Structures are given as C-alpha cells and as structure tokens.
C-alpha cells in the first residue's frame, strides 16, 4: 500500500492488543467517560493504554497532515475561482443583470443548485474558511451568497447563510448589532418557510441565545428562549421555558417574578407532557419566589397543583400539606373553592385516618378576640354583662362595697405571703363554676363548612406549692411559645375538669362568636392551652394560645407583657347568686310605667346575707316594697285603693335619690331557694339607654372570698310617644287664676293614646275646666301623628282670697277620660311621686325654687289593638312650669256691664271700682293714674306682656272692631275731627295711691261720666308700683318697680225710655 499510495499517505494502526480477553483493565481506560453514560464494555474489552495512545496520535497526525492541508488547498483553489467569476465590478454587474428575474416561482427551498454550480462552490469555500477560523473570508463569501439566494428566492439557503453570518460576526466580536440582525433575519425566515424550517429555526434560536448568554445579555436570551418555545412541542417547550427562567434569574438585577412565572409555564408544559416529577420540581422552585409575596392567586395555583400531582403520585402526606395552604382561599370563586376542598378531602380520605393539623386555616379563629371570663368575687348574670367596661362597674360599685375592702386591688393581696394564691400572674376561678372563653371564628369560603367538637385544650395541676406554681407557669409558657406540642399532651381529664364541646355549621362568609367552657372540679392550677376542632369529621385542627413571655432584660428594664393570661388558680366552691329582671321590656314608649320583679336564686348550699343593690339609672328603675309583689297593676295606683305603704315621705325621697338600696336586715337567701323583689320601671325619655344593676351580698359561712357581687346589664330602647308642653297665662278677669294651654303631640307612626288624667303636683294648686266647657271628651284619644290642645284653669289655693280652698270644690286632679272620678290615679303615692321626684331633680335644681312654679303629671293609656293585651299606663312629667308674667301686683276692674240711662235729661254717671292685690312677700306702693283720652303712642302692649319673652297668650281687644264699625257708619256723614271731645270722662281724682301689705288686697272706687249711649272700654288708666324691702324700705328701681296698662273693661250704655 505504501508503494502504491505513497509513504506519507499510508498509516498502520494497531488495536485490540490486550492479552486479557475479559477486559478486566477496560475500566481504567474508560473511567473518565462513565459520567457520560458509557456502560457498554463489549467494544472496549480488547483495548489497552498503548492502543488508546496510538489512536490519539493517529488522529492528530491525520488531521494536521492530511485534513487541514487539504482544506487549505481547497480554499485557495475555490477562492481563486470565485475571484475570477464573481469578484470585481464587471463580474458583479454581470451577475446582477443575469439574476434580475421577477418571474422566479416562490418555493420553500428555492431553485436546485448542483454541486458544481458557483453558488455551491462559494458555500463550500465559506464553510471551509469558517472551520479553519478564517471568519473574515467566511463572512465576505456568506454576504456574497445571501444576495444571490435572496434574488433567487431560495429562502431556506438564505436563512442558513444569514445564520452563519451572525455566527461570524459573533466570533469576530465586531458588531453586536449586525450579529443580532442576521440571527433575527435567519430565525424569522425559517419560521416563514413553515414546517420544513422548524428544526432549523430551533437550532438558530439556540445559537442566538448562546451568543447572548456569552455576552451577559441574559434578559435578551430569555426572550429568545421564549420565542423558540412557542414553536416546539410541549416537552421541548418546557425545557426551553425552564432555560428562560434561569436566564431571568441570572440577569442583573434579578427578575424574580418573571423567573417564577416562566417556571410555572415550564411546569405546566411538563404536566402536559406527562412528566409530573419534572412539573413538581419546577413548581416547587417557583414556590421560593411566591411564598414571600402576597400574590394569592398564583400562590394558590402552585400549591394546589403541587398537592394534586403529589396525590396522583401517591405521596398523600405532602399533597395534604400543600392543599392545606389553599383550603381557606376567600378570594377565589365558588367553583374554585369547591374544587380545592373536594380534592383536599379526597386525599385525606385516601389515607384512611384522621389528620391532626396545627393551625388549620378553616375556620379562621380570631385570636385577638379571645377573652377569658372567670368569676371570682365578680359574677355576671348573662354573657352580655361581661362585655361592659370594667370602669363602669367599678364606678357603680364604689358606694356598694364596704370601705374596708379595696375594690381596685385583687383580694389575693390580703392572703398570707406563704399562701399559694399570692401568684400575681394568675387569675382566680372557683371550683364547680365554669370558666368561659369567648372567641370569634369565621368561614372565609363561600360554601358552608361543618365544624364539630370545638373544645378547649386544658391542663390542671393539683400541686399548690407556691414555688412550684411559678415554675410550672413559666415552663409551660416557654414550652408552648417555642414548640408545637401534640394534642395528646393535653387530653381532657374527667376527674379534674370537664370541657364543653360545640358543633356548628358556618355558612359562606359567616362569622360567629362562640363561648367555650371548662369547669374545674378540684383545687389547683388550671391552664388554658389552646383550642381543638374537627373539620367535616375528617381533619382535626388545633391551635395554641400565643402568650408573650417576659424576657430577661437588663436590670431596671421590664420585659414584654403577656397578651393573654391563661393561668387560673382554682379555689374551693363559694355561694353564688344568679338573677334576672322578669318582664323588663326591650322596647317601651316614653312614659311607660310597669311593675317588674327581680328574681334571685342561690345555687349553692350555703346562705347569703347583707344584700344591697345599686342602680345606675334611678330615673328609669327604682326598687319597690315587699308588699308591692301582691298588688295588681295598675289598679293599685287608683285613689280608691288604700295602702299605707304607698305613702312617700321626705326620707324615702332622699333614699331614692341616692340609688343605693339595702334590703331589710333579716333577709337571707338560703341555698337552693329563689328570692323575689318588686321593681318599678318608668321610661323617662326617648332614646337608647343601658341599665346597670349591681347586687352585693356576703357569705354566711367562712370562705376565701368574704363577699361577691352580681352584675346585671340591660339595653332598653325608649320610643317617642306623647310630647307634652304647657303654656300658662295670667287671667285678666280673676285674681290668682291662670289659663293653661296643654299641647299634646302623638309622635308615634301607628299607635294611639287615650288621655286619662291631668294632675297638679301638691295641694297648693287646683285645676279645673273652663266655665264655657264642662266636658272635653272630644280629645279623649289622640291618633298617630296628630296633635291636640286643651285649655284649663288653675287656681292658687294657698291665698286667703280663694273661696274654693275652703269648701274643697276644686282639686289637683282632673279626669280627661269618660270613666269619671273612679278612674283617678293617686300621684302623691309611690311609684309616681318617686319618679316625679327624679324628673324634677333631672329637669331642674330643687334648691331655691322661685315662687309660682308648678309641676304637671299627665297620665295616658295606650289604645290596644288586641283586647287581650294588658292595660299599658303612661305618665308624663313636666316640671318647673311658670306663668308668662310674674308681676307682684294683680288688678281687676269690677262694675256693671250694662247700664240703661235717659240721656235727654242728664249725663250718666257709672260707679266702678278697681281691685288691687299684692302677691309679693313685701310691702308694695301702688299708684293709679286715669286719663280721659290715652295718646295714640301710649297705646302699647301692657308691661306684663312685654316683660316676658316666652310668647304665648295675648289679649285680643274688641276696641279695634268697635272703631271699625264706627268708621263704617260715619262714611255717609261728615268726617269728625281727630281732636273731638271724648264721649266719657273720669269724675274722681286723676291719681290715687295705696299701700298694700304682702298677700293683701285693696279696692279703689272710681266714677266715670258718660255723655252718649254706646259701648265703651274703660281701660284708659295705668298702674305704677314699687316693692319695698322688709328691712330698710329701700326700693330697687331696676328690679322691684314697674307698671302696666289697664285691662280692657267693656260697658254697654243704652238709651232709656
């Protein structure tokens, strides 16, 4: 062969020189290639190290002495051939002229080029130059070819040339822009060709991405990977998307959100390719991004799919762990929530056992709403009483609890230092009495969930050693704060305590506040550890109370305070009272008066004594007497019912004002018995008010706690009923009499009320109807949204001039209903007078009340639509009413109203008299001045009208009407002069003065001369008075002096025969 082919062209290669045919030394030869998966030893069993070295030397010699020289020789020949035919200006013009064809058909591969064609030779030249790293020569020929292929519409070859041009630009590292342009051109051209260029497009994109990654342009490289993935099958696309995610992670700055998003896309593509393990791997890597951010939707998507794929793979514990993260997704739709929950319960049931889950998110327990209710010396009648602010109870009980006991300090402070109860960190509860824990839980889903077996996790230690107690408390707190113990550590102990279990169904989005109870049976230390519950009879959830323990700080600094005290010291049993107010209304009309009953029951075996009661609103509720229990309401309040116990003395009023009531000393409530006491209720004003009532009682036997209190709280809504107001005006025709107008407005939208009785409080005043109306039955019922006005007359019975005071013809009560005097209620007896005292105290001060003030009580009844309903009585109290004028001097003109006289013989003389009464408490001087014709400017309102700014009553004089009639009659006659002579003159003195003592009267005779018949108003006089002080007689002109215009007094003068 050497003789024939030449000495340099032949080479002898010796292989399989190993003497051991079993290939025992093959591992030494190929050990470096095991990582690449080479496990077949059949082809390597006869090679030794010398054979391998000889093969290596042969390949090096063959490449350097034969292949490379051949390629170099080929390049020189092809380059000269190309230069002859294609290079130069003449050849380029010729080539363009020859290739300028517009009718070239469009084809994917373009025209067919033979191996001997100039285009194929140029491509061989370019590829040889690229392999020998002559990138400049290769690039120039690639550029030459790209023009030819483009003109020939050989798009696949054009894209290949563009791809190689981009690689040349990259290897030369000259123009990044040109390199990217060529790769972009090649990639889009491959895609435009169709399926035949798909593989080439993927190859081009991979080269392009590697170029960008080499230059550190990872962000741009990830975009290229994403573009490639859109054109590949799901498995290839998953690999490319994962590469794109890695590029985002390597970019500067790191783009974590896009990294996680592309991992999710890659995992989904792996799942579509039935590569669940790779899908789980991609999703788990994405969790590191999303678990630190509140991107709830994609977080739920990742956890749900990872859990579902783990469940399909049979790894149920990990699947349930991930699904636990999404079962409480409140932001998802109803369909999505149902899918999450169904898959979760499906995998739980697949395990065949119940799962114990720490901090199960369904339902959600609001730990900030936790409140431990333990009763020591403070007990509560209902759960609502616990929510009342402690400061309200302390203020109410300030006078209730004896001064020897300090309310604001714990009773444990009074224990000896050696007592185990001196632990200030713990609260106190009583053995046999339930310790309650209020907590709020919410269903975040839109579907209903079944929660059963909700109970407390507790621990009770019967060791009461003081030193060990503190160690137990601290150790337990640190253990729970730092670890998550198992539920079995705190199982219920039926011998030491019992816990309640609660089953509820929470609707979609529903929030409930529940109360859990634990009842200790023995003395010891009770610790509330946490809460446990069962979800849909499949999953057991439990959560421990997080207690902030006190850390060891430097001297002089305090540690963090605990947020919830769960340590309770259990002491031996105590007597306990429970109570409620029977028939207390939650809604009532203003003025509603009712008789209630306070029921107290002693649940223990020992008696209690020294019972006292404090009421927050004595204006609404006052205690009655023991005899009131047997009364029939409201018949007991009528005047014909005689009861000495109902009479209220001044001392009783003072006790009522204090709102502190002490039960009789002999009253004891024995164990297991019920005690009742009457209460009177009166809805004073409209609105919402809270009634607080606290009862204090002491133990008859010796106990750890000497006393206890029972706290009761009620909310009452008082609705508007009748709005009553009074306007009082002095009577101009009678002394010491007033005209009263009572305005009543029914402010209810649908209820009617019947007026029953109007009373003046006390014996000084008498009320009666006006003389012109003996009955006012037309206002006996006031319909809804209606208003009425009633007129009455009141008299001062304390004056010596009042005739009715002697014969008793007038009283302080007037019946407004058709029932007559038999339906009169006695307002001078309890409870009406007690509530009136409260109203009077509320509406104004009692001390130094000005004279002339009076109070009214209007009693009405609600008109019942249903006749079977009991009678409803209402009392309305209006206090401190006064007349519109409080002048110290009253006056009245007396005389004949009709006079007959023959004016043809002489003028007529009329004798009249002016009665003046001094109603003040001091001596008063009164001067009367008469005038025949009052000046027009002096015709002003009397001083007693202008002095009051309250409005209301005004005198309506007939003088204007008379003048109008006179002017009408005189229209046919000539006009009278404005300065004509008056038709009457005063014959007596023009001025008279009289001195009056307190509460005395005087009569001044007057005479008037009349010249013609007609109707005359003898009010042309004025009164001026001065009130003298009883000590020195000094007169204060600004306060005790005044005057007034005369009241109208009309007299008809007729012509006699």
From TrEMBL:
This is Trafficking protein particle complex subunit 8. The lineage of its organism: Eukaryota, Viridiplantae, Streptophyta, Embryophyta, Tracheophyta. Pfam families: Ig_TPPC8_1st (PF24545), Ig_TPPC8_C (PF24542), TRAPPC-Trs85 (PF12739). Residues 896-1022 form the TPPC8 C-terminal Ig-like domain. GO terms for cellular component: TRAPPIII protein complex. InterPro entries: Ig_TPPC8_1st, Ig_TPPC8_C, TPR-like_helical_dom_sf, TRAPP_III_complex_Trs85. SUPFAM superfamilies: TPR-like. PANTHER family: TRAFFICKING PROTEIN PARTICLE COMPLEX SUBUNIT 8, TRANSPORT PROTEIN TRAPP. Residues 387-553 form the TPPC8 first Ig-like domain.
């Amino acid at each position: 062969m050497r003789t024939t082919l030449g000495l340099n062209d032949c080479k002898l290669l010796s292989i399989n020189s190993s003497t051991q045919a079993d290939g025992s030394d093959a591992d030494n030869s190929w050990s470096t290639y095991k990582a690449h998966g080479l496990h077949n030893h059949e082809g390597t069993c006869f090679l030794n190290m010398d054979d391998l070295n000889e093969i290596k030397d042969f390949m090096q010699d063959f490449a350097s002495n034969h292949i490379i020289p051949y390629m170099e020789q080929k390049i020189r020949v092809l380059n000269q051939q190309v230069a002859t035919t294609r290079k130069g200006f003449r050849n380029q013009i010729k080539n363009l002229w020859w290739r300028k064809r517009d009718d070239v058909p469009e084809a994917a591969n373009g025209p067919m080029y033979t191996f001997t064609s100039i285009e194929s030779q140029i491509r061989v030249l370019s590829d040889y130059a690229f392999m020998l790293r002559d990138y400049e020569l290769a690039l120039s020929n690639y550029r030459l070819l790209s023009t030819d292929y483009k003109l020939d519409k050989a798009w696949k070859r054009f894209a290949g040339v563009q791809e190689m041009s981009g690689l040349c630009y990259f290897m030369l590292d000259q123009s990044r822009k040109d390199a990217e342009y060529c790769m972009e051109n090649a990639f889009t051209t491959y895609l435009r060709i169709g399926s035949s260029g798909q593989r080439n497009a993927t190859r081009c994109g991979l080269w392009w991405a590697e170029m960008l990654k080499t230059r550190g342009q990872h962000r741009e490289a990830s975009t290229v990977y994403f573009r490639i993935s859109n054109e590949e099958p799901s498995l290839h696309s998953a690999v490319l998307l994962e590469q794109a995610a890695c590029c985002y992670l390597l970019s500067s700055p790191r783009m974590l959100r896009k990294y996680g998003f592309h991992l999710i896309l890659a995992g989904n593509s792996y799942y579509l390719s039935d590569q669940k393990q790779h899908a789980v791997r991609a999703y788990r890597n994405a969790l590191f991004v999303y678990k630190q951010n509140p991107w709830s939707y994609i977080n739920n998507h990742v956890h749900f799919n990872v859990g579902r794929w783990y469940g399909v793979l049979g790894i149920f514990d990990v699947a349930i762990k991930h699904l636990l993260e999404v079962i409480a997704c409140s932001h998802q739709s109803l369909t999505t929530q149902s899918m999450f929950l169904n898959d979760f319960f499906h995998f739980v049931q697949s395990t065949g056992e119940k799962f114990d889950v720490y901090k199960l998110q369904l339902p959600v327990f609001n730990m900030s709403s936790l409140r431990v209710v333990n009763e020591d010396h403070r007990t509560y009648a209902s759960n609502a009483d616990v929510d009342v602010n402690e400061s309200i109870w302390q203020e109410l009980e300030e006078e209730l609890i004896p001064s020897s006991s300090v309310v604001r300090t714990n009773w444990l402070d009074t224990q000896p230092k050696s007592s185990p109860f001196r632990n200030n960190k713990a609260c106190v509860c009583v053995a046999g009495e339930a310790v309650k824990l209020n907590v709020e839980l919410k269903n975040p889903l839109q579907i209903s969930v079944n929660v059963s077996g909700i109970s407390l996790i507790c621990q009770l230690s019967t060791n009461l050693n003081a030193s060990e107690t503190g160690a137990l408390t601290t150790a337990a707190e640190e253990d729970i704060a730092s670890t998550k113990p198992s539920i079995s550590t705190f199982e219920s102990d039926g011998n030491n305590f019992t816990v309640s279990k609660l089953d509820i169904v929470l609707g979609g989005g529903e929030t409930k506040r529940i109360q859990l109870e634990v009842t200790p049976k023995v003395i010891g230390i009770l610790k509330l550890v946490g809460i446990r519950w069962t979800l849909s009879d499949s999953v057991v959830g439990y959560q421990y109370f997080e207690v902030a323990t006190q850390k060891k700080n430097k001297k002089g600094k305090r540690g963090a305070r605990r947020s919830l005290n769960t340590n309770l010291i259990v002491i031996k049993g105590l007597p306990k009272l429970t109570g409620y107010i029977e028939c207390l209304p939650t809604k009532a009309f203003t003025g509603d008066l009712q008789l209630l009953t306070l029921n107290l029951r002693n649940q223990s075996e020992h008696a209690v004594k020294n019972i006292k009661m404090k009421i927050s609103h004595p204006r609404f509720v006052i205690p009655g007497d023991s005899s009131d229990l047997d009364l029939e309401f409201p018949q007991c309040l009528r005047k014909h019912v005689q009861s000495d116990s109902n009479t209220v003395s001044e001392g009783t009023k003072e006790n009522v004002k204090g709102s502190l009531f002490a039960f009789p000393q002999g009253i004891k409530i024995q164990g297991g018995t019920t005690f009742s006491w009457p209460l009177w209720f009166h809805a004073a004003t409209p609105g919402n008010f809270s009634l607080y009532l606290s009862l204090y009682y002491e133990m008859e036997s010796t106990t750890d706690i000497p006393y206890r209190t029972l706290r009761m709280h009620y909310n009452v809504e008082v609705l508007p009923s009748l709005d009553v107001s009074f306007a009082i005006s002095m009577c101009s025709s009678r002394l010491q009499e007033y005209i009263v107008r009572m305005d009543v407005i029914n402010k209810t939208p649908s209820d009617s009320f019947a007026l029953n009785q109007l009373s003046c409080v006390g014996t000084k005043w008498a009320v009666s109807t006006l003389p012109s109306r003996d009955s006012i039955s037309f206002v006996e019922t006031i319909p809804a949204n209606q208003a009425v006005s009633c007129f009455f007359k009141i008299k001062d019975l304390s004056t010596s001039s009042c005739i009715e005071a002697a014969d008793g013809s007038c009283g302080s009560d007037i019946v407004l209903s058709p029932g007559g005097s038999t339906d009169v209620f006695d307002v001078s007896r309890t409870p009406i007078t007690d509530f009136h005292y409260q109203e009077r105290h509320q509406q104004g001060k009692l001390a130094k009340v000005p004279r002339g003030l009076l109070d009214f009580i209007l009693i009405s009844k609600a008109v019942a639509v249903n006749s079977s309903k009991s009678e409803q009585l209402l009392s309305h109290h209006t206090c401190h009413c006064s007349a519109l004028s409080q002048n110290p001097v009253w006056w009245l003109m007396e005389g004949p109203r009709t006079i007959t006289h023959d004016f043809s013989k002489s003028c007529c003389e009329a004798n009249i008299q002016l009665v003046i009464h001094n109603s003040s408490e001091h001596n008063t001087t009164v001067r009367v001045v008469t005038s025949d014709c009052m000046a027009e400017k002096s015709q002003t309102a009397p001083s007693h009208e202008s002095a009051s700014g309250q409005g209301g009553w005004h005198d309506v004089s007939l003088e204007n009407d008379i003048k109008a009639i006179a002017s009408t009659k005189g229209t046919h006659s000539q006009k009278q002069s404005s300065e004509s002579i008056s038709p009457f003159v005063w014959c007596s003195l023009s001025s008279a003065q009289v001195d009056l003592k307190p509460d005395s009267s005087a009569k001044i005779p007057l005479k008037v001369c009349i010249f013609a018949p007609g109707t005359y108003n003898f009010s042309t006089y004025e009164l001026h008075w001065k009130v003298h002080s009883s000590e020195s007689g000094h007169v204060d002109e600004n306060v005790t002096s005044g005057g007034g215009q005369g009241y109208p007094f009309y007299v008809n003068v007729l012509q006699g025969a």
